[in-house]
Amino acid sequence: MERIFRDYETQLAAENQRVVEAEARDVRRSEFAKIQQADRLAAQIGRSVRVNTGDSLQWEGTLESLGKGWIQLQSHSENILIPMNSVNWWEGGTPFSTVEARSVSRSLSLGYAFRALASARIPVRIFHNMGAVTTEGTIERVGLDFAEIALHPLEGHFRAQQISGWRTVQLSQVSACCSLLT
C-alpha cells in the first residue's frame, strides 16, 4: 500500500512540475510579446548586423546608434541612417537579447539626425523607398517632415558652383541616407 502511495505522490509531483513548466512558458511568451523591435536592436549596439530596407537593398555594418525611429550603421566606408519604417528585416547580433530602447535612445528624431548632417555640411546619398531614384548632394535645411537638398556630385570637394538644382525630400520616403566616413 505504501508503494502505491509513493507511486501516486511521484505522479502527482511530476504533474505539478509539468504545470509549473507550462505556466513558465506562458509567462515567457507573454513577456516576449511586450518586446518592441527597438528593444531588440538596442541590445545589438556595437554588433554587426545586416538590414533589408523597403527598396530591397541590404545594408551591412556595425550598429552604432539608435534614435527615435531610426538606426545608424557604420560600414567600412560610410555611415548609414535607416528609418525604422523602412526596415523589412534585420539579422545578426545576438539572439534572445533585449535592452530597453529608452535606456539607449536619445529620443532624437530622424529630422534631428538630418539637421546634424546639414550642420556638418556632409555630402549624402539618399535612397528612396521606391528604389530606382537616389538623391546626391548636401542637406541644406530640414523641416518637420522634409529636407531640402542641394544637388551636386559626391566626388571631389563640394563647391557652390557645382549645385545643379534643389530637391525637397519627404523624410517618410527615405529608405537610407549614406555619408562617407571622414
From TrEMBL:
<dbReference type="GO" id="GO:0016301">
    <property type="term" value="F:kinase activity"/>
</dbReference>
<protein>
    <submittedName>
        <fullName>Histidine kinase</fullName>
    </submittedName>
</protein>
<keyword id="KW-0808">Transferase</keyword>
<keyword id="KW-0418">Kinase</keyword>
